[in-house]
Each structure stands twice: as C-alpha cells, then as structure tokens.
Design brief:
By secondary structure, the chain is mainly alpha-helical. The protein is 65% helix and 0% strand.
Length: 237
C-alpha cells in the first residue's frame, strides 16, 4: 500500500519549517550576515550529522523502505570534508568535535536506524530536500557575506552529480510516494521529520551566542526582530 508521503511531509512539517527559518542564526544568514567562525562550527556539526546519516543509509541500502530514496548523488560527507579542510586545515579531524546538539542529533539517527529504520526517511527528507531546495541561494548569500567568490568552503551546497536539481526533486518526491508503507507508518515518519527539524533548530540556537559576540546584541536584535512567514520548504543550512 502506497501513500502520498511527500505531500504529507510537506504539509505536516510547515510549522517546523517556519520555526527553523525564524531561529536567530538562520534569520541572520538569510539577511546576509554570516560570521565565518560560527559558520565553520556549523559545518563541523553538519559533518557529524551527515557522517551518521550516510553510514546508516549505506548500511541499510537494501532495506525496502530506504532503498528507493538512497540516492548516492545526495551524499554530503565528501563535500563537508573539503569544506572542513578549507576552514581548519589538513588536520581538521583533530580540531573539531560535535556540539551537544549535534551529538544529540547523531544519537537520534543511530537510534532510529537500529530500532525503526523506516523513520530515517523523515531525517533524509528534512536534510537533503532542504539542501537541494535552498542550497544555491545559501551558497550565494555566504559567498557575498564572507567575500568568497569561489566554492572553497562552500562545497556543501554544490551537487556535481545532479545536473537538474528541480527535476531531481521531482524524482525524489515520486520515489517517496511509492515507498511500501501504510498510513500509520507515514504518520510516524512525519512525526520524526518534525523531530529532525527540532534537532536542527537546537544546533542553530547553539550558534547564536557566537554570532551575537561577532556582530553585537543590537544588530542581532534588529536582524531577528521581524519573523518570517515561512515556506513549505525551509531554506536552512
């Protein structure tokens, strides 16, 4: 039995999308204020998250629910490794550690992979479809904010194996709609996707202290005063 999971995820996570967009870190990012030190810490946290996600997705690549969306073109670990080498140098592995929020996020990914692998669909959707939807916009913002006209340090937003991102997103959503799940499992996946957004927000909130220190409380308050109305696909890092 197939369900319209892609639509259910879009509709069922709208509130979480809006909340993510309205965190102080993301609000400032979308308005062109990107502090390099805060950003590289985010890249480090994302590395740990995607390392866990991709290890589990590769391990479970033959799982009947996960296999249809296990597109290796989406993998981000190699790109994040390149970005970390740019920000931290060749010994970057010795210089980074997961923040408390990233550690919690990784633990949740590992937990569901072991106990209910189908729920990884919610995490996969939340991160990768968001990366495809907003990646190019965020890359352009970061390039201007950090005065970096190249892709150095921003490979996370580049998908060299995906020629047409719009067409790929259509393929991805179609694959989600054919997953062999019933409605109760679809409900659980939507719930898990909302949990994934919550975990992402905790990572963003951790970075706000660094950002305030970099730009000052007054500017931070000005940039975050008006909340965005949100969208159906959050443009988050």
């Amino acid at each position: 039995m197939s369900v319209a999971l892609a639509t259910q995820l879009r509709e069922g996570t709208k509130k979480s999308h809006t909340m993510a967009e309205n965190t102080g870190f993301v609000s400032c990012f979308l308005k062109g204020v990107v502090d390099k030190l805060s950003y590289r810490k985010l890249v480090a946290d994302l590395f740990f998250v995607y390392e866990a996600m991709e290890e589990e997705m590769h391990r479970l690549k033959d799982h009947p629910v996960l296999a249809p969306i296990a597109f290796e073109q989406l993998d981000r670990v190699t790109a994040l490794e390149e970005d970390l080498a740019f920000y931290f140098g060749p010994e970057w592995r010795q210089q980074i550690e997961a923040s408390p929020a990233a550690t919690e996020y990784v633990a949740r990914i590992r937990e569901v992979a072991q106990t209910a692998p189908e729920l990884l669909v919610g995490h996969h959707y939340t991160r990768y479809l968001g990366d495809l939807s907003g990646g190019q916009i965020l890359k352009n913002i970061a390039q201007k904010a950090m005065n970096n006209p190249t892709d150095d340090g921003l490979h996370f937003y580049v998908f060299p194996e995906i020629a047409d991102e719009k067409a790929f997103k259509t393929t991805y959503r179609s694959a989600m709609d054919t997953l062999p799940i019933d409605q109760p499992m679809a409900d659980r996946i939507v719930e898990e996707a909302n949990q994934a957004f919550h975990l992402n927000m905790k990572m963003f909130q951790e970075l706000e202290g660094n950002l305030v220190a970099a730009i000052g409380k007054v500017l931070f308050g000005f940039l975050t005063r008006r909340q965005r109305t949100g969208s159906t696909e959050a443009v988050v890092a």
